[in-house]
Every structure is written in structure tokens, then in C-alpha cells.
Amino acid sequence: MQIFGFLDVRNNYIRNQNIRTIRISKTMKELSVNHLIGIKYITKQDIDLIFETADHFKEVINRPIKKVPSLRDVTIANIFFENSTRTKLSFELAQKRLSADVMSFSAAQSSVKKGETLIDTVNNILAMKVDMVVMRHSSPGAAHFLSQNIGASVVNAGDGAHEHPTQALLDSFTIREKLGDVGGKKIVIVGDILHSRVALSNIFALQMQGAEVKVCGPKTLIPKYIESLGVTVEHNLRKALEWADVANMLRVQNERLDVSYFPTTREYTQQYGVTKELLDSLNKEIVIMHPGPINRGVEITSDVADSQQSVILEQVENGVAVRMAVIYLLASKIKN
Prior knowledge:
This protein is an alpha/beta fold. The protein contains eleven helices and nine strands.
């Protein structure tokens, strides 16, 4: 059984051109899970399958006709209990590229404000015959809780400071695309590790693929027992960058800071902000990543964000392909 057989793509830009097709796989492969709750629940083989599928979807979304009819009979609800722009748009675009029916739900305009519970909210949506739920929630474990209580497939789009699995997957996919492989590479994650769901998911994903991971930031923003996850800690940014092949720069999670973790933003930038001058002073060229949104002039300067070493826009593009792959592979299990 094929993953989605041959995709018919009509090229409107070339006259008298026959229907062009692409074959993704002759043999159907499946994810080991029915939900994407977190990286810690999947396997290296799952990651390989997602990347293999994303490779082909990236080819599709770079064609003149970017839509495929793979999920015409699948309905997906995007339920965001936290504000989001990039992730929500990326998921919606991925779903529409696959021809799924899409429902978008924002807690700010919903009955949640009137006291409705998470389960009641989702069950009301499922009553509309939804096959998959993509959810972002401020509470760690919310996606796992939901997956245990509903029949639809659940994709975690971020649960508090816990995990953000699709971000970690697109980050690894981008490293693989840029450097050829993730295995054996040295990745430093810089910034607010304590409050970052991106950091935790990246640590799990990178280590699963054989990368070395180091974290760098102020002592107050590094979890006490993070070394138990097999990562090393470096508080000196220059030393961290001299060690690394890739630096993933995280935004300080101001909305999650209930106390002051450093004196001033200016002081944080002086110690942990990456400038072009700093990069040019290294004895090698490293790759700069950022999950966004960027605080220009804080964690990185504009000339770094817009430099040749930055793959930030590639991360955005790859996010659509990777989320298409995740959604497609999970939907395949629903159909089966």
C-alpha cells in the first residue's frame, strides 16, 4: 500500500504538459503512535519516517500547484488555548495543502471563558465528526490528558513549558538539510531553558538522532537537574559557540516569568545575545537557528538573523512540510 500513491499535479505554467506524478513510497510504513504528544513517546524510526515523508511534501509545496488531495475526507480541529501566530498558521497551511477540512478554535472567543471544561469543549467539537485535534494549551500534560479521553488523534502544538514536538522535528529536519545529518553534530541551545518547551523537545529529538547537546544561559534560567537528561551546561556563551556546530537561540519567555531571573534585558543581551561581531570572531562558521518569534537586538541582532549563517526562514518553510508529514501519517492510521 502506498503512503498516498501517485499525486496528480497539474502544471498550469506549461502548456500541453501531461499530468505529473510523484511516488512517495511503494510500501506503507506507519508511525508507532496514534498521537503526537511529545518526542519522548516516539522512536528514531518514527522520526526517520516523518523526515522521509516531509522530503516529498517539501517538493510538493515548492511546485506551482501546492495542494494534494491526500486528506479530502479528514476533518481537523485546531484548538488553541494560548495565543499563537506562526505555529497556528503553519498547521493550518499544512492541513489545507493536504486538502483536509479545517476548523479553527480560539479559547478567547469560546465558552471556555464561561467556565466550560477542556473535555466538554473538545467533545462538543468531536460531535461535529472531527478526526484529529491539534491543540496548544498552557497546562503541561494537557495533550496527553486529552489523548486518553477522546477517540480522535491528538497533535500537541505546545503544552505549557513541557513539549513542542513539531518544532523539535522541524528544527532537526533543518539541521539535517543544512549539514547532511544530525548524528554526531554538536548543538547548543541558548537562552531560557527553564521555561522552554522547545528546549525539552529538542533535547529528546537531537539525542535520539545521535547529536551532542549543550545548554547555555544564566544559572537562573537553567533547570537544576537538566544534566540528568544527558546534556552538559555552559554559562559562557563564547565557549558554547566555539564548541557548537549549531546554535539554537531561544526567546526569553517573558509571559512565563513570575519573578525576575536576571537584572535587566540589556545585561542579558550583553552576556547571551549573539552579534555578527561575535560570530565573525569564531574560528569557524556555525549555523544559527531560532524557533521565533525573534526579539531582534535581544537574543540575536538583526544582522545575525538576516545573515547567511541563519536558517530561520528555512525553519519556517520546513515547518509546513514536517507538519504535513505528521498529519498525513497520523491520518493514515485513522483510515486504517
